[in-house]
Each structure stands twice: as structure tokens, then as C-alpha cells.
Design brief:
0% strand, 65 residues, mainly alpha
Length: 65
């Protein structure tokens, strides 16, 4: 399942996939794979992404019911 919440939050702070990746120390391909839903990030990576984007885990990584 695509992570459109992550893509939207990243765009809202005007960061490219590469810029976000650089800030958290992963490859651009990792960010792309998370957004496409083909990679399930570790909780540590989820937290790093949330801190960088100023979001909570619930905002980006949990599906709405």
C-alpha cells in the first residue's frame, strides 16, 4: 500500500526524496520504496522520518480505520 501520507508530509515541507534521505542517513531509493509501499521501514527509521518532518508516528505510518 502506497504511503501517500509520507509523500504529502515531505512535499509540505518542500523536501525532495533525496533531501529527506540525506537528513536521516538513508538512500533516496529507501524513501522511494517506503512511499511506494514496497519497503517496510524499521521503527527506528519511522521515528527518524517523523522527527525530520515534524510529525507523529500515527500521522504517517498507521492506517486510518
Amino acid at each position: 500500500m502506497k504511503n501517500l501520507k509520507l509523500k504529502s508530509a515531505r512535499a509540505a515541507v518542500d523536501l525532495s526524496q533525496q533531501q529527506l534521505a540525506d537528513k536521516i542517513g538513508v538512500s533516496r531509493q529507501t524513501i522511494n520504496a517506503i512511499e511506494k509501499g514496497t519497503y517496510n521501514p524499521t521503527i527506528k527509521l519511522c521515528i527518524a522520518i517523523c522527527k525530520t518532518l515534524g510529525k507523529k508516528l500515527d500521522d504517517l505510518f498507521w492506517e486510518d480505520e
